[in-house]
Design brief:
Number of helices: 2
Helix content: under 10%
Structural class: mainly beta
Order of helices and strands: HEHEEEEEEEEEEEE
Shape: globular
Strand order of the largest sheet: 1-2-3-10-5-8
Radius of gyration: 17 Å
Length: about 170
């Protein structure tokens, strides 16, 4: 039975995709000292290889002791996370709550209720991240000296709250 399933997975053609075959990204655009707080997380872009341009979909694996991001909110992008395996602590302005497999959370664009996932367990957590893509999006980070905006070339620009760049 397992061999037959393997053959089916290997023969998938778009619009289908085996997430295990998606390229792994273990990088972060964050400058230090923030980069080391999130790495080594693993992201697999699932929408890109299928040609999706209006939404982004990542399958993310967050190791024990790591943070998904700095606590933040987006100006123009909605975000949605769905926990597939393990557990994470969702941190928002309202406090903390544990999310486990099968739970989800959503963050509307422009809501200043900043959010972050933290893996405080001893096992990796896996979740889907879904968001719209907006070239004009920016983000605010209330807990750290960090700002984000997209540059004209589409690359992220990280700065300090005084306006200087990292």
């Amino acid at each position: 039975m397992a061999a037959a399933c393997y053959e089916v997975v290997m023969s998938l053609k778009p619009p289908a995709l085996d997430p295990a075959l998606a390229a792994v990204r273990s990088t972060s655009g964050y400058p230090e000292p923030f980069r080391s707080r999130v790495l080594p997380r693993e992201k697999r872009a699932l929408g890109d290889p299928l040609g999706l341009t209006k939404i982004g979909v990542n399958l993310t694996t967050l190791p024990p002791g790591k943070e998904s991001s700095m606590r933040h909110w987006h100006t123009l992008e909605d975000e949605f996370v769905f926990i597939l395996e393990g557990e994470v602590v969702l941190r928002t302005d309202a406090g903390e709550q544990v999310l486990t497999a099968g739970m989800c959370a959503g963050f509307p664009a422009g809501s200043t209720d900043a959010h972050q996932l933290v893996n405080r367990s001893d096992q990796p957590a896996r979740y889907l991240e879904v968001s719209n893509r907006d070239e004009q999006d920016g983000a605010a980070y209330p807990d750290v000296d960090l700002t984000y905006q997209q540059g004209e070339d589409g690359k992220p620009i990280f700065g300090r709250k005084d306006g200087s760049r990292y």
